[in-house]
Structures are given as structure tokens and as C-alpha cells.
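Before a computer can learn anything about folding, someone has to put a protein's shape into writing. The outcome of that step, for a single protein, is printed below:
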Amino acid sequence: MKSLWDDNEAKQYAGELSQRVYTSRLLGRDTSLVLHGGGNTSVKITATNLVGEEEELLCVKGSGWDLETIDIPGFPAVKLEHLIKLAKLDSLSDPQMVNELRTHMTDATAPTPSVEAILHATLPYKYVDHTHADAVVTVCNTPHGLDKIKQIYGDSVVIVPYIMPGFDLARQCAIEFAKQRNEGSIGMVLMHHGIFSFGDTAQESYQRMIRLVGMAEDYIREHGAWELDYDTPAKDTIAPLALAQLRQDVSKAAGFPLLLRSQRDAKAMSFINRSDVAKISQQGPATPDHVIRTKRLPLVGRDVKSYIADYKTYFEQHAPRARAPKTMLDPAPRVILDKELGMVTAGKSAKEAKIVADIYDHTMDIITRAELLGGWQALPAKDLFDMEYWDLEQAKLRKGGKPPVFQGEAALVTGAASGIGRACVDSMLARGAAVIALDIDPAIETLFERSDVLGIVCDVGSESQLQAALKQGVATFGGLDMLVLNAGIFPGGCRIDNLSSEAWRKVMNINLDANLILMREAYPYLKLAPQGGRVVAMGSKNVLAPGPGAVAYSASKAALTQITRVAALEWGADNIRVNTLHPDCVYDTGIWTDEVLAARAEHYGLTVDEYKTKNVLKTEVSSHDVAELTAELCGPLFAKTTAAQLPIDGGNERVI
């Protein structure tokens, strides 16, 4: 542990609440303290209300905020006097507690305060910090963990046995704090959960947290458990088809599509290849908060059916004793430990799969160190069940409302750096898909800069590059659901009698051969798509109404259309639907420069605006229009349509 406090940086945060923001962000920067929304912080302030009365308020981290990026709006203010009164009640249900928190905020639009707000209120310090520090939970989750915590901290911390977060924990903490507190108390350890620090200033509370966690790290180091020997080499390659098959099995178990993420570094491979992995991995998570992300246990190997059966048994054993009736959540694993595929995590989005991966990456270190300290010993299953099925925790996962239509799915788009292809990426992302974006332009690698887009430089005219890009994409997201065949070239006008064989072959290679190859290579993955595979090919108005000087382009698009018709016949039994769009006059693409547009408009004796709308509907067709229809073709609206050819041209008289 090292303090990140910087006097110059701290000066930029004036005021008690701003100081709270600053040190909260310092905690959030260290993933060994908090991960993805974990932990919470607070400050007690005095403010004057609208009627001129001074009020004592608790500003505590709000639901949905992450400490690393939190700002002042992330600290809803709750009336402190009321929280203190609540802490003295004999009981308070979770719905009642949330209602009391929300109805006693000073801003009705603020986020819901942390469920540990009452606990923060009862601690008689201005600033309170709470983390799930790896080092502390490592020591807690070992045989005689309580004795080890006492050995580390003596009477400098109050120690509270494990109780599930909420009102009961706040009440018990108040009791233990009253019994154990002394003049030297600077923190509080919640067994199997985490650690609190407190102080009169933000700096004091923060630096006490660093000091306390550092003491646990020193203990681990002194007992030879800090330096870890991950001696199994990282695995560079992966079998993408095996990963896609696993994804299909996991998605089927969940009842909805999930993306997979594979980690195959030395840590993951060493942990997976331990002779005792089947024992140590089946104890439980590092801290109960993780269970809503990772589930209680990972799957070792790929027997998803056995995992489902075990999960159902787990539910049936513990649901009857719950305070309220419970409906079983989906039984699909979120972490899979496999010697070939590595540490695989599942999520409804690329971001969610990464969150699970980050959590289990830390868990592997924690388990490994705990084993060196005498053995890994997580909480009993009954306590983890209570957390997994806690209504307040489940609310965090339900708050998103109706899921995006392509949530948990992956699409591959060719020619994705500009024009229709770029617009297709945007339309897929807007519907929740992860996207494998291919383009010959090197800018594709940094064009989107987000976790749900993998930009790959790829010359679609190269069979080997296409194969490599497809495997890389599947390895990144776990499979393939949608394929958009967009990349193509439109050479300058050339009559047949002047067309060289080289020019003909170049157009055919890019517009026809590349698409055939990509369809062929993508077929095994599309067949494993949880909701059925979908292919959309970009044809052209020229298929139905060719013009002079475009024989290679027109022939290539016509042949591509014929390929999609045959594919629809051949792949229908595999629940893969294949459709074709025929755009025309899409002028917001790279090939239509201002000069070219002006020249073509002049050729027809039209203004540029008239030229852009020279169709029956007198409308302009944009890349966005084409992309939106492409996405809709992959969606439920066209679930029963295959081998269709849809024009998107504003109405072309020759086609009609």
C-alpha cells in the first residue's frame, strides 16, 4: 500500500465534500481496494436549508457511482438525525430502509444512498471510508482468520463478525463499536467483508485506510504468502470453435445470449492447472458482494449441464429458509476455468464480462495467498445465497430496464471505417451488440476506442487475413451472431471492350470472392449463435437495373446476391437467415467526393441537391438509413424472413 495523496492535487478540491470526492477517487484508483462500484465513503456536513435552518447531513456514496470517477452529485445528502434514530430501531426491513433513506434526502433527484448509510451515520467521525481490500479479505478467509486479524491489528480496530449488509449489520456495528472502541481505534474490520477507516479529515481517514491495509499486506509478506509463483506459461492461442460451443451452452443455460471473455495469462493458466483447483475454486468468492457478478462458484471444465444441476440443488437447499419467496435466477456460470480455454468469463455485454474477469483475476491472487496462509475458507453457502438473492443487490442488476435487442451478441462488419460500414457499427452498438470491425484502413484500430468494439486491420482480398481476423474476433467475444458483408469497391466507369482482365479480377476478388470466403469461414460460428445466425450482404441497385460502364461491379453484386440466395437455402436448417440489401445513391461515403458529385450532377443537368434526390420519393438515402435497415434485418422484426432482397434507393424507376 502506498498513499496517493498529493498536496498540490488536493488543493484543487476546496471544501469538505470536494475533499471527500478527492480521497474517494484515490481509493478508486487502487483495484486492490475496490473494484467496479465496490466500497463506499461518506462525510458529515452542516448545511442551511431553504427555511434558514442548519441541518446535519450525511453525504454518502450513491448507488450506481464508482469511487474512481465519483463526483459531488454521487454523494446524496441524507438527514443525519433521522439516520441515527433509525439505527436505534429493533428491526427495519430492506424496503423500509430504502424508503427511509430516499424520503429523507435533501434532493429528490439524487441517486439512492448506499445501503450502508445507517452504518456510516452511527460512526462518530466526520469522514468514513469502506473498502473490500484484497489483503484484508485474504486473511479473513483462512482458518482462524479472526485470530490473525486480532494479531495484525490488536485493539486499533473494532472487529465485527460477518453479518449481511443492511440494517442488521449497521445495528451490530453500533453495538460492537460501543463495546470495543478505545482512544486508539482508527478502523473497523468486518470479517469476510472488508474494512473501515475514519478520521476528522479526508486525508486522515484515507491515510488510515492505507496504513491498515498495509498492515495486512505486511502480515501476508512476513508469512511468505505475498510473492506468488505463477509458473505455467501463458497460452497464446485458443480454439475459437470450442469457445463458441461453450458460449452456446452457457447462453442456453442462461436463457439469453452471453458474450465470453478469455484470459490465458500465466496467472490464469497456473491457477487452472493447480492439482487442487477443483477444491480451492469451489469454496466461494473473496467477499459476498462479488456473488451477484460471479455467482457463488466457477465452473471447472465445460460440463455446463452438471453445473446447472448443482446450481438448482443449491437453490432448492437454501430458498425454503429465505424470509420471502425466491424465484431462481438463471443457473448459467459466469466464470469457467478450463485448461484449454483459460479463465473464461460471461456477461451480457463486453463490459460486464470484463468486470467479472477483473473480479476473478483478484480472486485468484486472494485464494492463492490464503492457501499459503493455511488454507482458503470462504463463507458458507447459506450466507452467499442470502447475498445472491438479496433484493437490494438484485435491484442493481435490474435497474437497466428492458435490455437492448442485441444484448450479449456479436456482429462482424467489413469495410467498417467509413460510410455504410461505419454506420452499421454504430447501429449495431446502439442495439447492444459487440462489434468486430474490419477495414483495410489502419485507423480502424483506434476509431472507436471502446471495449465492445474490436477494430482489426484486414485486407478482405486476403484469405489468410480474413481467417485470422475472424478467429481473433471470436476469441475476443466468444462467438459470432451477425455478419454484415459491406466492404466493396466501385471502379471508375469502363466499357466491356476496354475492361482489362486484371481490373475484372480485382473487383471480383473484393466484391465476390472475399464475401464467399468470409461466409464459408463464418458458417461454423453462425451455426452456434444462441439466437440463430444472421447475414446481411450489401448488393446494389445495379443487380436489378445495371448501367453501362459498370459490368464488373454489377456482375459481382449480382453473383453475391445469388450466393446469398443459395446460402439461405443451405443454411435455413441451421437457423441462419441470409438477406440482401440493394442501396443506391448513398452519397455520404468516401467514393462520393464533392468534385465527383458536382460532375455527376452537371452531367444530368441538375443541381447537387437535385441529383442526390433523383428518385421517386425525392429523398436522399444516407449511410445511416442503410445501416438502420441492416440492423433491423438482423432483429426480431425480420425473424421469419430469409433470402429477401430489399431495395433502399428512394424508388428507382428502372428497378420498379
Remarks:
- DSSP finds 25 helices and 18 strands in the chain.
- Residues 7-222 form a domain with the L-fuculose-1-phosphate Aldolase fold (CATH 3.40.225.10).
